[in-house]
Amino acid sequence: MVQPNRDGAHKRVLIVDDELSVREILAQGLGAMGYETFAAGSASEAFDILKDEAVHIVLSDIEMPGEDGIELLSRIKRHDGDLDVIMVTGVVDARTAIHAIRNGATDYVAKPFNLEEVQIVIDRTLEKRRLVEENRAYQEHLEELVDQRTREVQKAYESTLQALVTALDFRDNETQGHSYRVVEYAMLVAERMGVQEPELTWIRRGAILHDTGKIGVPDAILKKPGRLDTGEWVEMKKHPEMGFRMLQHIPFLEPALNIVLCHHERYDGSGYPRKLKADDIPLGARIFAVVDTFDAMTSDRPYRAALTIEDACKEIVRCTGTQFDPGVSQAFLSIEAHRWQAIRDRVHREMAELEEQVKKAMR
């Protein structure tokens, strides 16, 4: 809909009345006051004009032969809910005018009227419309600003999390790039299972942060080149709870912390730290358990060579129902091997580039 200018220019009024003399008086008088006018002798003629012309206000008689003003009002509101309609009624028919207002009319003028009164009502309506449109524009602008600020904050959150993950990956050289890979793996499986926002974001953040608790694991254990002994495993197995305690007071991370705490739980209840079983384990953690193990199996370790993707998938099948949720395993196994390899290759390149940037910065 064309909006009136604040200075009053281009104010377009459609006059609807079955009496020619009324139409002529209103058109001549409003024209002299600076309004551009259109005139119609019936509701159908008025609606035809509205379809072809941009009008700011409709000034319509209520009592007209055939389709009356109330019926025209309903048609107008269906056509353009923001178009202001002022009804014209006889003094004895004020109740009808009030009924019209309840059905969408902006105001009404009672007959007999004078042109000054009509101008006051029209100007009041235009001013009200101007304020409404200004408020609407302000609200839309405010929403844009809020959305922009929210995106900026979210980006800052993600950057902070990525920095933390990078620090962890560089500390644990044996698993460098692991956190980046499992994030992408987890998202791929979650999407295949039909998980949608905001749960996808929670899973991504939980996957990013899953090993945060390893900050509290001594280097002698974390960087040990061989297998851990029983005592060392006791210490290592504390990292899910340590990570959870470290992050639990950060509100925007709260929905993601189930993965941090539960990513070493097993489907049969033999995992840690709480020995949860089956669906008691949060879905994000069940998804992560599969991709975390897959990444470990397909990565070299000092004490063993990496498995091929095909052999790792066979292990996923073998451990389904004990270590892994059957539904998650099915979704994982339905994804083509080349997609896993593409993620591994891309993360490897990105980590190599990042390491080179760090070396250059330290020279």
Structural overview:
The chain is of the alpha/beta class. Helices cover 58% and strands 7% of the residues.
Write a short abstract of this structure.
Helices cover 58% and strands 7% of the residues. It has 363 residues and is α/β, with parallel strands linked by helices. The model is unreliable at 1-9 (pLDDT under 50).
Question: What quaternary form is this?
Answer: single chain
CATH class of the largest domain: Mainly Alpha
Q: Specify the structural class.
A: alpha/beta
Indicate the radius of gyration in whole angstroms: 35 Å
For this entry, give a set of tags.
alpha/beta, Rossmann fold, 2 domains, five-stranded parallel sheet, 15 helices, elongated
Indicate the topology.
Elements: E1 12-16, H1 20-32, E2 36-40, H2 43-52, E3 57-61, H3 69-79, E4 84-90, H4 94-102, E5 107-111, H5 115-171, H6 178-192, H7 199-209, H8 219-222, H9 230-236, H10 239-247, H11 257-262, H12 283-297, H13 309-319, H14 326-333, H15 337-362
Helix pairs in contact: 2-3, 6-7, 6-12, 6-15, 12-13
